[in-house]
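PT: before anyone asks, these are the final sequences, not the draft ones from last week. 339 residues across everything. Please model them as a single complex and drop the result in this thread when it's through.
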Amino acid sequence: MVELDWKNLPFGYIKTDFNVRCTYKDGKWGELEVSDSEYFPIHIAATALHYGQEAFEGMKAYRGKDGKVRLFRWDENAKRMQRSAEGILMAKIPDHLFHDAVVKAVKLNEKFVPPYGTGASLYIRPLLFGSGAEVGVRPAKEYTFIIFVTPVGPYFKEGFNPVRIAIVRDSDRAAPLGTGTLKVGGNYAASLRGVERAHKAGYGSPMYLDAKEKKYIDEIGAANFFGVKNNTYITPKSESILPSITNMSLIQLAQDLGLKVERRPIAEDELSSFEEVGACGTAAVISPIGEIADLDSGKVYQYCKNGKPGPISTKLYETLVGIQYGDVEDRHSWVTIIE
Ligand SMILES: *Cc1c(COP(=O)(O)O)cnc(C)c1O
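LR: through. Structure below.
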């Protein structure tokens, strides 16, 4: 294992030893290649650069108490990347190629998988983009698939503590029939103004409302939203949010705990009635929310009045993290041990 200050790792990029790459050409994927370079030579007319023909994924590898390295629901990331590829007309990556590339990238960099008990993990970033040259707006004929990994600390430095969120109304990250349901780069460029506005106002992340009516909750930064009340887990149904694998897993765990689950539009007004609210995604699992402020109307919604996350969020968080690190029984076969 390399010597790193595991407990104080940022959520940022740290160089590892290798990345893996694969090229799609003449209608088929080639062999996986290993590189020790952090750079990639790219054609100046590649569709990714001009027209944003690009999609990515985010997942993690976790080291358990037994020293073994685990992946969490990698097949769902593979499926989602296939949906992203379909959505912007890119070549799809077959499951077996996605799997082999992830395993290879993790194994080659095994010494960067943080030790058990540090709260850190190895972040895995698969990337697919149009690398073929075109000048007109049309799909490329060549694609490149790259996976790099980087060790990361817990997403929120403060740990499992309430965060503050700002509703922004002067920018949208995605339109209802646009690309919001896909993990494609353009959505994140479109979200940057909202992120900056929230930060400048002193909040951790922006909350986006639906672009059409500005009435319903869409997402929080690059995380899904959920609320809990009356023993029910409620999460938005919308045509412009990214289907989070963490949220999908929390829905299952909430049902296992005996909660009801509702997926439906959630109007901003309803925020005042929730007992607990949170943001969820791979990076932080759950970020419990202490405050949501509507920057334009001046309304403020408050939670966690004792300064602590609510009991259901805490239980869901501990169960999911426990499964990922191998401490809690994996009843739904979500975990793959890398041999
Ligand atoms: C990646 C992402 C999420 C979280 O998805 P997970 O699969 O749980 O990591 C949520 N919203 C957006 C916009 C995302 O990009």
